[in-house]
Amino acid sequence: MMKLSLGPLQYFWPRERTLAFYREAASWPIDIIYLGETVCSKRRELGTRDWIALAGELRASGKQVVLSSLALIEAESELGALRRLIGEGRSWIEANDLSAVQLCRERELPFVAGPSLNIYNHHALALLIEDGLRRWVPGVEQGETLLRELCAAVLAEGRSMPELEVIAFGRLPLAYSARCFTARALDVAKDQCEFRCIEYPDGLALATREGQPFLRVNGIQIQGEEITDLGPELLTLRELGVDILRLYPQADGMAGIVEHFDQARRSMEIPSSIGERNGYWHGEAGMKRAAMPG
């Protein structure tokens, strides 16, 4: 049976809200939980020690815990925090930057290749497998056709595929920048941002000049406005050999979302859609609603 994972929290929530969320998640039918800050190092409601302590609590509840790294490392202090995460020693690391890959390789530690590593062919995948990659989360725009071709190429060379984890629900992380989009939208300097993104628990909505919802601004990250839902593609995902469905934390209703996917993975029926878009999966624009099976 497919596993379910709770992807790393992309948004900036207050400390108590974050801790309460994960302590509730400990009772959900989730197999794997990713912890850590992946977007902005200035978000310090929870520090490295807090994430490591929370990892211990969740492991005690029977979850596999993976500690996630920043997608954009710019400073020595950020490398230091990454070294402390890797030094925890009891959790896998989700490497979202090649700095994390290098440190895991030096310590001969297994790691998860996060979606921001941009692996587009089987040669790159093979190199990272030699470095310790044990699970791969494809990039957000990599749909069924590309995955099918890449998996076939790996197997044709006599190699084994790592665990395959696909983003099945949530707003997709599209881009990162050294600039802070939230600060710019609010007309404040990045260094004086006053952590304003904490006011937007699901990101700051961005519309076109015509007033149409377009993107979500989340600190230095830009997300799609649409919520991807690959639940209706479950039969295809099984046939492709996908091992894990990733669900990104949302501010509201997350327990129900997890329950929906848990019921779907235990059934052979195609679940109804509770999200909005799945265009990338079909090789089309990510914001285009593709036809659902059936």
Question: What does it look like?
Answer:
By secondary structure, the protein is of the alpha/beta class. The chain has one domain: Alpha-Beta Barrel (TIM Barrel). It has nine helices and eleven strands. The protein has helices at residues 15-25, 48-60, 76-87, 98-107, 122-131, 144-156, 181-185, 234-240, 254-265; strands at 3-6, 32-35, 64-68, 92-95, 111-113, 133-136, 163-176, 204-207, 213-218, 221-229, 244-247. It has an eight-stranded parallel beta barrel, surrounded by four helices. It is globular, with a radius of gyration of 18 Å. It starts with a strand and ends in a 29-residue tail after the last helix.
Number of strands: 11
**Fraction in beta strands:** 15-25%
Round the mean pLDDT to the nearest integer and report it. 91
Q: State Rg.
A: 18 Å
The best one-word shape is globular
Could you describe the largest sheet, including whether it forms a barrel?
Answer: 8 strands, parallel, barrel
From N to C, what is the helix and strand string?
EHEHEHEHEHEHEHEEEHEH
Tell me the CATH topology.
TIM Barrel
By CATH, the superfamily comes out as Aldolase class I
What is the first-to-last residue Cα distance? 23 Å
Number of helices: 9
Portion of residues within helices? 25-40%
CATH architecture: Alpha-Beta Barrel
What structural class do helix, strand and pairing data support? Answer: alpha/beta
> Strand arrangement, largest sheet?
1-2-3-4-5-6-7-11
As for the number of domains, it is: 1
Low-confidence stretches: none
Broad CATH class: Alpha Beta
